[in-house]
């Protein structure tokens, strides 16, 4: 099992910035994918950004150039820096950790972008 603890999120004005962090613990593998998905009201959960332990990234087209994902493999943490936030970014953001044999989710943190 893997446990994920998220922090960050909150309310921000359009154009503002937020940082989300996620710490993984438990049955950690050296090869894994960490990242973030989000789910807005009435919509399906969608990928935001993921990063492999080898350094490969994948971003949703809607966040490219605005969001940056990073991770610290030694500390098993991932961070999502979100800049130039838009109202369409409003959603619950879920940290995710995927390794051979399992795909794990955090409890989610609310991000609201509103004036």
Draw up the topology in text.
Layout: E1 2-7, E2 10-12, E3 18-26, E4 33-39, E5 46-52, E6 57-59, E7 67-72, E8 77-82, E9 91-99, E10 102-105, E11 109-113
Describe what you observe in this structure.
- The chain is mainly beta.
- Helix content is 0%, strand content 57%.
- It has no helices and 11 strands.
- The chain has strands spanning 2-7, 10-12, 18-26, 33-39, 46-52, 57-59, 67-72, 77-82, 91-99, 102-105, 109-113.
- Strands 2, 4, 5, 6, 9, 10 and 11 form a 7-stranded mixed β-sheet that branches. A 4-stranded antiparallel β-sheet has the order 1-3-8-7, with no helix packed on it.
- A hairpin with a 2-residue loop joins strand 9 (91-99) and strand 10 (102-105).
- The N and C termini lie far apart (40 Å).
Assess the beta-strand content as a share of residues: over 45%
The average pLDDT is: 95
The SS-based structural class is: mainly beta
Shape category: globular
Low-confidence stretches: none
């Amino acid at each position: 099992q893997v446990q994920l603890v998220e922090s960050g999120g909150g309310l921000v004005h359009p154009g503002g910035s937020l940082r989300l962090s996620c710490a993984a613990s438990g049955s950690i593998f050296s090869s894994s994918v960490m990242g973030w998905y989000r789910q807005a009201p009435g919509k399906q959960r969608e990928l935001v950004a993921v990063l492999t332990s080898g350094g490969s990234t994948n971003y949703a087209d809607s966040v490219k150039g605005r969001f940056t994902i990073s991770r610290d493999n030694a500390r098993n943490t991932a961070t999502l820096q979100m800049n130039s936030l838009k109202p369409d970014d409003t959603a619950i953001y879920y940290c995710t950790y995927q390794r051979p044999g399992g795909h794990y989710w955090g409890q989610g943190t609310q991000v609201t972008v509103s004036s």
